[in-house]
Amino acid sequence: MKVSRLAIPDLAVVEPQAFGDSRGEFFESWNRARFAEHGIVFDVVQANVSRSLHGVLRGLHYQWPNPQGKLVSVLDGEVWDVAVDIRRDSPTFGRWEAVVLTGANRRQFWIPEGFAHGFVVTSAQATFSYLCTAPYDRAADAALRWDDPALAIDWPIARPTLSDKDARAPLLADIAPDRLPVYRP
After folding, report:
1. CATH no. for residue 139?
2. Average of pLDDT values for 98-122?
3. Catalytic amino acids?
4. 40-52 b/e with 16+ CB inside 10 Å = b?
């Protein structure tokens, strides 16, 4: 497995080693000890799968309090996946990273607690997998605006399909500081 750290060093792209022959292929998608060797340590407490059509944008979501870290991947299709650092006092506060995830490239994106997360489907459809460090907590569920001008995320789809919640999400500057995660070096 290959792990690449991004410009925001808490984020990582994981590329598992695949083994294949004429019957198909196999790869290990999660192994606690192997991930820990690369500094990615967490327990999977909830696993989710979503299926979305072309142009659907989900995000930017986070939980506070009771934050969730996520190891995300695409089982089928393609998405443009984004993580935004929203940790108060972080040296990379408000910065984002994007990764193309596909069923074919098998990449996984590690997004630790303290980041907002979202993706847009760039293929006809996509099946998306999330391994989470904490269970979903409706009371802690939060979002920020996908097209916040201060973030200047360069989404590959100009007019995505959004949920009502995502369409009404606030700008990062309008979120009270106590509703944002805290940076812990």
Report:
1. 2.60.120.10
2. 98
3. 61, 130
4. bebeeeeeeeeeb
